[in-house]
Automatic annotation (TrEMBL):
Known function: Part of the Tol-Pal system, which plays a role in outer membrane invagination during cell division and is important for maintaining outer membrane integrity.
Domain TolB N-terminal: 75-160
Keyword Signal: yes
Leader sequence segment: 1-18
Major location (coarse): periplasm
Highest taxon in the source lineage: Bacteria
Keyword Transmembrane helix: no
Keywords annotated in UniProt: Cell cycle, Cell division, Periplasm, Signal
Subcellular locations according to the entry: Periplasm
Protein name: Tol-Pal system protein TolB
Assembly and interaction partners: The Tol-Pal system is composed of five core proteins: the inner membrane proteins TolA, TolQ and TolR, the periplasmic protein TolB and the outer membrane protein Pal. They form a network linking the inner and outer membranes and the peptidoglycan layer.
GO CC entries: periplasmic space
Length: 464
């Protein structure tokens, strides 16, 4: 993957006075997001707006982003004017799919002119009953890159809440849309964002008895899809490294399991472990230095830790039965895993060195594939009680909440902000698999489109 250039630039503080005004500021070269303009108010809205039920009633108008002059761009056949509407559509879809707001997109709204971006026509938006307004602009640069600006306004107060801008290569225009979505989400909720992130998963094709499973990645909304492996070897259970540069996954060639780290930038793979025994569920430590995995030896399956660069493994569990699927707490101090040592598949927590093992699931049914939330306050897991469903509980095991009611929903993975859970669902009759997302209320669920069947999702952190 090429190194993305996404640079935050300062937006002018004065209103836009003319359509030929240049809003861009020369940005320093570099590969990371660099904020050079930041509002003092960065928290969420105060008062009743911070209640989730009020967020769901909050209407946000998102008209097409304006342009000072419509110029050709590699990002759109319709020039910067057409691209402005595409950006607004992506933002609208992001906020709608999140389930917290009621966004209204550019196809249902009047198109603002370029001078109105920093000087909105308040009467127009108040008359439509909109509470929040997103304005933005797109400019084409001589070097082929794009300048994208994003403003958020409170219509009732006729006040600007926040603004930010980015310079992006034309091919990466969707990242600017995701960054704008993150800006809006964070300003209104006070929570960490998640739209500018990527998802890895296993792409499945072919008949059931000869299934081809390839490693694939895509944006959080399913765009910019890419296959990473050819399918000659079965790939399973991918996970992003904490720095987003690598993918950890399990590969089977002729029944021989190997744990690989795939460098996304170079395409090179590093062999971490070739155990010669059945191996399952490799997972990163939060600092990226270690990898957990499960291995079966002599009828016992235990959890091991190995350096991410390879080397000697350390066994962390040593009880009769099957221990699988370790997931670290965000601070790296504890590990949640599944075990059948009590006679049925249940979830346990232990210290990072393997001490202090204790069962936390006592809800009836079985507990599998536990995954610790990035916030540290919840553990998502597959609850098996007849059907397979996605559920969450506190690390203590208290306050079980079942979020889905599918026939076979499994393998939860958290969004970077710990608010959305992705999983895969198997259809009862066809056996086809697909990725789905659900928020922590359980009320907002959607299917994520992929070009082929999909399983084993893994949500990465926010892109740098």
């Amino acid at each position: 993957m090429k190194k993305l250039i996404l640079l935050v630039v300062a937006l002018i503080a004065s209103p836009l006075a003319a359509q030929n005004q240049d809003l861009s500021t020369p940005a320093p070269e570099g590969g990371e997001v660099e904020t050079v303009f930041e509002d003092e108010e960065t928290g969420g809205l105060t008062g009743s707006t911070t209640d989730e039920s009020d967020w769901q009633d909050l209407t946000i108008a998102i008209p097409g982003f304006a342009t000072d002059r419509d110029v050709p761009t590699a990002a759109s056949n319709d020039g910067t004017a057409g691209l402005g509407k595409d950006i607004a559509r992506v933002i609208t879809a992001n906020l709608r799919n999140n389930g917290l707001f009621q966004p209204i997109g550019p196809d249902q709204l009047p198109q603002p002119g370029f001078p109105q971006i920093s000087s909105p026509a308040w009467g127009t938006w108040a008359g439509r009953g909109n509470e929040m307004l997103v304005h933005g602009y797109v400019q084409g640069r001589a070097d082929g890159r794009l300048v994208v600006g994003c403003y958020l306004y409170d219509v009732a107060l006729q006040d600007e809440l926040i603004r930010e801008g980015w310079v992006v290569p034309a091919a990466d225009w969707r990242r600017a849309a995701h960054k704008c979505s993150d800006l809006i989400y964070s300003r209104l909720t006070g929570e960490s964002p998640f739209f500018d992130s990527r998802i890895a998963y296993i792409a499945e094709t072919g008949p059931k008895e000869k299934r081809v499973k390839r490693l694939a990645i895509m944006d959080s909304d399913g765009a910019n899809h890419r296959f990473l492996t050819l399918g000659s070897a079965t790939a399973l259970t991918p996970r992003y490294s904490p720095d987003y540069k690598k993918l950890l996954y399990l590969s089977y060639v002729d029944g021989n399991p190997r744990i690989y780290v795939y460098d996304i930038g170079t395409g090179r793979q590093q062999l971490v472990a070739e155990t010669g025994n059945p191996t399952l569920a490799p997972r990163w430590s939060p600092d990226g230095r270690s990898i957990l995995y499960s291995m079966a030896v002599g009828g016992n399956t235990d959890i091991y830790r190995v350096p991410a660069t390879g080397g000697q493994s350390v066994r962390l569990t040593n009880t009769p039965g099957i221990d699988i699927g370790g997931s670290y707490s965000p601070d790296g101090s504890k590990i949640v895993f599944e075990s059948d040592r009590s006679g049925s598949q249940q979830c346990y927590v232990m210290n990072a060195d393997g001490t202090g093992q204790r069962r936390i699931s006592f809800h009836g049914g079985r507990c599998a594939t536990p995954e610790w939330s990035p916030r540290g306050d919840q553990i998502a897991f597959t609850r098996i009680a007849g059907d397979f469903n996605i559920a969450v509980m506190e690390p203590s095991g208290r306050n079980l909440r079942i979020l889905t009611r599918g026939w076979q929903d499994e393998a939860p993975t958290w969004a970077p902000n710990g608010r959305i859970i992705q999983f895969f669902r198997t259809e009862r009759n066809s056996g086809r698999t697909a990725l789905h997302q659900v928020d922590l209320t359980g009320r907002n669920e959607r299917k994520l489109r992929t070009p082929v069947d999909a399983s084993d999702p893994a949500w990465g952190p926010i892109l740098p």
